[in-house]
Amino acid sequence: MNNLAPLGIGSWLFIGCYLCSLLLIGWLAKQARTEDTMQDFYLAGSGFGPVMLFMTLFATQYSGNTFFAFTGATYRIGYSWIVCLHFMTAIIVVYLLFAERLHILAKQRNYLTPGDFVQDRYQNKALTIIVAIVMIAVLCNFLLAQLMAMGRAMEGLNPNNGPAAYNIGVVVLALIMVVYGTLGGMRAVVWTDALQGAILIVGFALLVVSLLDLFGPIGKATQILMERDKVSGTRFASVPNAAQCREWLSYIIGVGFAFAFYPQAIQRIYAARNTVTLKRSLLVMSFMPLPTMVIVVVTGVIALAYFPGLEGASADQIFGSLLREVQMSSIFGYGLVLVILSAVLAAMMSTADSALLSLSSMLTKDIFARCFYTLASQEQLTLVGKVFSWTMLLLLVLLAIALREEASLVQLLDRKLDLLIQIAPVFILGLRWRSLNGSAAAIGLLTGISIALILAYGDLAFVHNGKIFNFHPGVVAVIPNLTITILLSLWFNRRLIVNKNVQKSSSINT
Amino acid sequence: MLTRFPTFLVYIILLTLAVPWYWDSDSQLIWFGFPAWVVTSVLISLIASIVTCVIFLRSHDNT
């Protein structure tokens, strides 16, 4: 958000009060705790009603990426990024395949982490640990992207002290987040999500109204882009070509099947009070991509039409250039930018705190308790979880500072997709096909991950811009993953039946 | 739910229509201030949301 005019003391007080209110919510959530168990800390006891669940799902799914990366992506490729509308909808469609069944099982068997389902369903420790490691890696990537987005936001607020503001922003915001998360656990995270979700919706709706007021109707921006396409051969407003259409298909399938399996989203499925609550929240969520993504694309298109020229990671900061225009336009604009800045900080923090909570629960339950200390009490595990939260956050803060200018936010998003989509067969097939074998799923998963990583980082001749024929490596790799999982399951089951028949016939003979 | 064939087919059709492969690449049509292909894509997404909402309302999934 570089180029913003410096904020006055009043503005900083407003942002400071907002951040302090999060700490207060954390403290209130701590008071509301009924018992010192992992279930209460990580899933808030008996669960959430439809409104709270919807708000937390919304605030978790629409994050710093929504504002920075998606506006930046529209700025880079133009209207073609409207694909984000479809892939955000695809996530909810994929929930149709498994969310209800998973929720029913979670309530019956007290699941806490995604690994609990995997262990319960397959009774295969290796598979559980592989799934946990993949999810932890994805969460670290996810959290890193949010921390970097926080740093860039603070950098924009202090344009004169770029790098220092970025570093201070990352450290201070991460500190506030971990404090209220440690105090109140899932309850604090969801309560702050509700507050932040509300600010987010209001802030962005007002932003679009101001942008259209400042720059004129969207048709004008579309005309500018169409003229630019004619003159310079770009495709900002043109119909996507064949390569872009294949990329659309890859994004819709890939993001749909990958991001439905974010551990924090799965834990919210667990945390729904009952099935009706879950379905009500998800049906409202199915309409949220439309207003949110159209607003993001309109913002990016206006930026592209009126502020061309930024490239690479700096394109993620285009959002700030637009805010500056609104900020300088009037006193109302100045106040509006302040609310929007709070909304943006809110979006990043609410997404990051959910990821941090999931990360700590998986490290504690799926790795520490399952592999190293099986006899730990609930109080000990809750304490260990808090220690993991602080340690992981410290490491990721240092990494975010080190990578300040290195990666664009969409590059980080693509790598998450490649890994997370490999887990989809373990959950979807596991819930629907009784014969699916744990060892087969583990071999399929490892194959999928290996192929995805080789394709993504192998520097292969047929891989262009990290994609194969415009498909993400993860989407390509899930095909062998699925094939191996199914074929090996059939083979293992056949061997099992043959062995049983042999045992039966030998017992008859004897 | 999604595993029932008619539902699955509806989503496949929506996915096919969501990707704007069937538009003329030189199209300069503008509807409501947006390129026309963007408007159709947004409408398909709206239909997908409505279908999803109806399925959630009518589903009774038992494990």
Report on this model:
The complex is a heterodimer of chains A (510) and B (63). By secondary structure, chain A is mostly helical. Chain A folds into two domains: 396 residues, Sodium/glucose cotransporter (Up-down Bundle), CATH 1.20.1730; 70 residues. In chain A, 80% of the residues lie in helices and 1% in strands. Chain A has a two-stranded antiparallel ribbon. In chain A, strand 1 and strand 2 form a beta hairpin. Chain A is globular. The N and C termini of chain A lie far apart (81 Å). Chain B is mainly alpha-helical and 63 residues long. Chain B has a domain of 27 residues. In chain B, 59% of the residues lie in helices and 6% in strands. Chain B contains two helices and two strands, in the order αββα. In chain B, helix 1 packs antiparallel against helix 2. The two termini of chain B are 12 Å apart. The relative contact order of chain B is 0.16. Chains A and B meet through helix 5, helix 9, helix 10, helix 12 and helix 13 of A and helix 1, strand 2 and helix 2 of B.
The stretches of 5 or more residues of chain A where confidence is low (pLDDT under 50) are none
Strand order of the largest sheet of chain A: 1-2
Provide the CATH architecture of the largest domain in chain A.
Up-down Bundle
Instruction: Say how many strands of chain A there are.
Output: 2
Query: H/E order of the elements of chain B?
Result: HEEH
Secondary structure class of chain A reads mainly alpha
In the CATH scheme, the class of the largest domain in chain A would be: Mainly Alpha
Tell me the helix content of chain A: over 70%
Oligomeric state of the chains present here: heterodimer
CATH topology of the largest domain in chain A: Sodium/glucose cotransporter
Ends apart, CA distance between termini of chain A: 81 Å
Helix count of chain A equals 20
How large a portion of the residues of chain A is in β-strands, by DSSP E? under 5%
Helicity range of the residues of chain B? 55-70%
Beta-strand residue percentage of chain B: 5-15%
